[in-house]
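Here comes my example:
=====
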Amino acid sequence: MNHRVRYILVLVAIVSVAAMAGGPKKYGKPLLLTEKTKISDILASPEKFDGHRVQIAGSVVDVCKRRGCWIKVAGDRNNESLLVKVEDGVIVFPQSAKGRAALVEGTVVVRRLTEEEMLEDARHEAEEQGRKFDATTVNGPKTVVKIQGEGAIIK
């Protein structure tokens, strides 16, 4: 076999492996819904969606640095995102998911947090992200909307 043919075969093998590695990755349970819900619709009327299973799509804008136990998915409007929290250890999102397209299913959860609960959540998030905690940035009470994620596909 001449060198040119060998080179082409090796190149094809490398490209094939890279393409398979970069393909969509499935996490958790299979996605069941066929219709997507806009993040902007959920955020505009959270009570309407509270307790309902939804499927959302968007770009991953952040990933839990500590355990990969949540992702933030960008909404269809500027400066909107929705936190998708998964059960610790059941699904672990890699840092490489950041910037990639996500399709996620789960149940919408709406909670009214007291200022004390907000302080605790902000303290925990700062610790997870390796940031210094600043209590002066927390104002409450506040309604928090998130998705309790059950399954996802990251492309």
User: Anything to note?
Assistant: The mean pLDDT is 86. The two ends are 38 Å apart (CA to CA). The longest strand covers residues 101-113. Residues 42 and 48 are 8 Å apart (CA to CA).
